[in-house]
Write a structure and sequence with these properties.
69 residues; mainly beta; two-stranded antiparallel ribbon; two-stranded antiparallel sheet; 10% helix
């Protein structure tokens, strides 16, 4: 018997207009690696204020992530 698992990517957004935050969970597409940044460059709608804009990964995300290793 084995233990089955799935993979989920959890995106955390901060609105550029109202500064509120929200999260969005997604399953990576078939034949893609976990490092595929599927939301980068996509239009995203803020559920709080309705502002719509292009999503981009935070500038210091990789530097902060490197500090944790």
């Amino acid at each position: 018997m084995t233990h089955d698992f799935t993979v989920e990517v959890l995106y955390h957004f901060n609105c550029g207009n109202c500064s509120n935050w929200w999260s969005y969970a997604s399953t990576p597409p078939k034949n893609k690696t976990i490092l595929t940044w599927g939301m980068d460059g996509k239009q995203v709608h803020c559920p709080h204020c309705g502002h719509e804009s292009v999503a981009e990964i935070k500038r210091d995300f990789f530097e902060k992530s490197a500090d944790l290793s």
